[in-house]
Amino acid sequence: MNRKILRIAVPSIVSNITVPLLGLVDVAIVGHMGSAVYIGAIAVGSMIFNLIYWLFGFLRMGTSGMTSQALGRRDLAEVMRLFLIAVGLGVGIAMAFLLLQVPLRWLALYLMHPTADILPLAALYFSICIWGAPAVMGMNSLNGWFIGMQNSRIPMFISIMQNVVNILLSTMFVFGFGMKIEGVAFGTVLAQWTGFVAALLLWHHYYGRRLYLYFQFDNSSPSLWEGWGGFSLSSFFTVNRDIFLRTLCLVAVNLFFTSAGARQGAVVLSVNTLLMQLYILYSYVLDGFAFAGEAIGGRYYGARNRQAFALVVRRVFLWGAAVALLFTAAYSVGGSRFLRLLTDNATVIAATTDYYPWAVLIPVAGLTAFVWDGIYIGITATRAMLISAAAATALFFVAFFLLRPLLGNHALWLAFILWLLLRGLMQTLLFRSSSRALRQ
Predict the structure, then answer these.
(1) Rounded distance, CA 237 to CA 246, Å?
(2) Which of 146, 283, 340, 430 is the most exposed place for a label (fewest CB within 10 A)?
(3) What is the pLDDT of residues 128-139, one digit of tens each?
(4) Per-residue burial over 146-161, b = 16 or more CB atoms within 10 Å of its CB, e = otherwise
(5) Which of 42, 47, 411 is nearest to 261 (CA)?
(6) What is the average pLDDT across 93-113?
(7) Are the CB atoms for 9 and 319 separated by under 8 Å?
(8) Residues 431, 5, 62, CA angle at the centre, nearest 5°?
């Protein structure tokens, strides 16, 4: 079982770590253009797309859980229907973005409110990068389907390839052809489409031909075209609705965390931003094991194999606990050195001292929430995920506003830790009812 978990987790961790490199490459290139406005434009544009794609992350999560369960039931017709529904929905939503790009761009830039010198460059970056939306949304659906099929190697390969293509093309456009921010944007879009096309070709090579032969020549196989108005569509939209609303809760907390820090001044905002990098780094690693819980747990849940499913839950939690203890030890001993790699501002580094203990608590506080998220996605218990996220989000805001007069920025960090803890606690309490299908 450990080998199965690592076979999913390790490539997923590599994929997670490479994802932010697309944005970092863009920043690194524009950082050598001689003006800070280019960096600001990339920062604004990247944040807009990150937020949009995060809100539609249900395309990956919902597809992963439902596909792994269908695979466990050996229902290849359902597996194929989920592929078509997920990729079709992802590309369809992105096409709506393209049709509505003008009002969407206006709304996004109005909410971000960049300065007058950054605004036209951010608008240009948005106008180009929006054409990569079908590739990104389609890729999110494909990644979920691949993970549901117990294959995290293809998403890892695509992530690495996209970064290489992005580096080569953006560098060529900017330094070879003399383009500015439009060169970076074109490089990013072409990398996104290259990854999507490559993923479709790999899908056809490893799965498409086999599934075609299965439906073409096995007369005993169920029809691919049966059930479109039943389980596949209704369950798919119900699951993804809950995940979307749950993601809104997470987005609200993360955006408010940044906003509340900004209202306390540049130093506090910088401190919070730096310390949150420790949270992000930890999440990239632990999410790899959560993905393993999605894929393997969902498969055994679909097969109604109670013993194997329980073993997956125990082993994933053991791996998660090991990762949490490792990160806690690393942050306790050497986390401040990592912060110095991100900035050499002595004032900001000194100011992190007061708040650093909160960052050390993050790995243990977030352990159960992260691992349960993976298990719950695998068994598509999305209503419980929504309930726990909504309750924890309410606690976050109540705790912050009650304690802010007494604790200041410490209240923000305490509320964030409580938010992580309550999500995990509620999912633990709800797990027995959420997995009741195994006892039927």
Answers:
(1) 14
(2) 340
(3) 999 999 999 999
(4) bbbbbbbbbbbbbbeb
(5) 411
(6) 89
(7) yes
(8) 55
Amino acid at 304: R
Tens digit of each residue's pLDDT (9 = 90 or more) over 372-381: 999 999 888 8
Contacts 24+ apart (CB under 8 A), 342-351: 342/274, 342/277, 343/270, 343/274, 345/270, 347/267, 348/267, 348/270, 348/271, 348/274, 351/267, 351/268, 351/270, 351/271
Q: How far apart are CA 1 and CA 22, in angstroms?
A: 33
Count other C-beta atoms under 10 Å from residue 333's C-beta: 9
- Whether residue 358 contacts residue 413, with contact meaning beta carbons closer than 8 Å, is answered with yes
What token pair was written down for 32? 């050598």
- pTM value is 0.83
For tokens 């073409």, the residue is 216
pLDDT > 50? residue 274: yes
SS3 letters across the chain: CHHHHHHHHHHHHHHHHHCCHHHHHHHHHHCCCCCHHHHHHHHHHHHHHHHHHHHCCHHHHHHHHHHHHHHHCCCHHHHHHHHHHHHHHHHHHHHHHHHCHHHHHHHHHHHHCCCCCCHHHHHHHHHHHHHHHHHHHHHHHHHHHHHHCCCCHHHHHHHHHHHHHHHHHHHHHHHHCCCCHHHHHHHHHHHHHHHHHHHHHHHHHHHHHHHHHHHHHCCCCCCCCCCCCCHHHHHHHHHHHHHHHHHHHHHHHHHHHHHHHHCCCHHHHHHHHHHHHHHHHHHHHHHHHHHHHHHHHHHHHHCCCHHHHHHHHHHHHHHHHHHHHHHHHHHHHHHHHHHHHHCCCHHHHHHHHHHHHHHHHHHHHHHHHHHHHHHHHHCCCHHHHHHHHHHHHHHHHHHHHHHHHHHCHHHHHHHHHHHHHHHHHHHHHHHHHHCHHHHC
Angle made by CA atoms 147, 432, 365, in degrees to the nearest 5: 70
Between the alpha carbon of residue 129 and those of residues 6, 97, 108, 134, 172, the distances in Å are 35, 11, 14, 11, 17
Measuring CA to CA, which residue among 370, 404, 403 is closest to residue 388?
370
Candidates 267, 271, 293, 260; CA nearest to 370 is 293
